[in-house]
Amino acid sequence: MDADAHQKQQEARDDWDELAATFDEMPDHGLRDPVVLAAWTTHLAQWLPSVPTTVLDVGCGTGSLSVVLAKLGHAVTGIDFSPAMLAQAQAKAQSMGQHITFKRMDAAAPLLPAHRYGVVICRHVLWTLPEPANVLRRWVDLLTPGGRLVLIEGCWHTDAGLHAWQVVEALPASAAQMRVEDLSKHEELWGGKVADERYAIVADF
What we know:
CATH class: Alpha Beta
Helix content: 25-40%
Number of helices: 8
CATH topology: Rossmann fold
CATH architecture: 3-Layer(aba) Sandwich
Distance between the termini: 30 Å
Number of strands: 7
Largest sheet: 7 strands, mixed
């Protein structure tokens, strides 16, 4: 990594560290509303295999999805490059009685063994990373044969984000099957109505 890229990454890490204390105040971040929590639990159960598997939560933030995944019976590892976010995640998992492994790591290039995870899941992180196609290839390399990639992304009213078609085009051609699910109309996921593009892409490899 060159000096300029390192500086930008450090600035981004500082920004996320600063947001950690209040990050969970957003309904879909903290999942504190029982309706929102139930909606995410239902969707995650539908996207993931019914049989418990190993799951990597990329860019796990404060660990809200990691905890839900663990409660569904999966063996979860969460990675994030923000120490403050990971501290929140660890405290949350402990308070919920869930054993989850959290590691400080760059989501764009995780230093993890290949073919380790049955599922790699990422929510609202891919759009922040450079060269999404290369990132997706690295994530797919972490999957066991027949593993599943679950991407929860969007293109927001601020024009930030990725359209679903952009992510589909960036996926490795080795996907055995893939589906796109529109999440914009599921206001129970977001704590209210949204007018932008939000979706999940579930791809098997």
